[in-house]
Amino acid sequence: MKLIKQIFLLLALLLSFTPTYGAETEKKGVDLEGILMGHIKDSYEWHVTDIGGKPIVMHFPVIVKSSTGWHVFSSSQFAEEKDANGNRPGPYGLYIANNAKHENKICELVNGQEVRPFDISITKTVMVLFIDAIILLLCILIPARWCKKHKVDDPAPKGFTGLVHMFVMTIYDDVVKPTLKDEADKYAPYLLTCFFFIFTANIMGIVPFPPGGGNLTGNISCTFFLALCTYLITNLTGTKAYWKDIFWGDVPTWLKVPVPLMPVIEFFSTLTKPFALMVRLFANMMAGHAIALSFACIIFVMFGINAILGTTMTVVSVGMSIFMMLLEVLVSYIQALVFTMLSAVFISLAHVKPEHSEK
Fold this sequence. Notes:
Layout: H1 2-16, H2 23-28, H3 32-40, E1 45-51, E2 54-59, E3 61-66, E4 69-74, E5 88-89, E6 94-96, E7 106-110, E8 113-115, E9 118-119, H4 124-149, H5 159-180, H6 184-206, H7 220-236, H8 240-247, H9 261-305, H10 307-349
Antiparallel strand pairs: 1-2, 3-4, 3-9, 5-6, 6-7, 7-8
């Protein structure tokens, strides 16, 4: 407690000798929102770093079908400087919009109206998805090759193969098998794929430099697709007893007809489960990245106020950033485990067997 009080007294003393946060920080031009949103949001290019004041950017292919037909070109053809409307003009009458409706999306003007063309471009999120998929395949196929060449009763593998083998057996023995029992082998491939894909994406998002640094699971489109897969597998493989419990459960008849109150509630519950999966993974991973970046941005804010205060807060900011990154490693594993475990539970609940009446 004494140390905390001394730190607060030191900060108060430094603040008393510093000017208010105003014109000086504006001159510095620290775009905190741009730093945070630039990492979280998707884009048509990947800003790596700045060397000698010159940005190092990876440009991706743009593939769109506009009012004038199909166009394929590099995102480098979009101007870096914005026009009077705040947009980044490009070829073929296309531009990257800068408004609330189509922010950072390719648009064009058709009869004076801003519209979005059919866009299947390779964006930063798509590139991160490809990278994570390749890494995941290598991490699984290399140990699988070892397992193919050895017998079951051979000594356990060591090194990287042993580590992956441990992860696979842990998830299978502690999550999939106890939940799905006799049907574990049937759904283990999907559940193990969910765990390793989410865990790989989470870990690669923590790496601060390419090929890492992409916030894939912090993109709600990715978590929506994963939750949709669980929803489809759960409901398409559900038993007759599962659907009977939803539309004609064991409740008083007046709750089912003439007003189908309970069937509507039960059917709505089938939608809330994947929704919870989607939001939980998205919110936790996005929040973790945002907090870690916020701690790093403290350095720029404080240097904009005063050099002494900036130097002092650098130690605190770096320490908190390291702590958050280490915490993110733990969260990456927990979120992958929770998604896999809940998916297994939802699938098992859809495989209920009909209750036999006692004779």
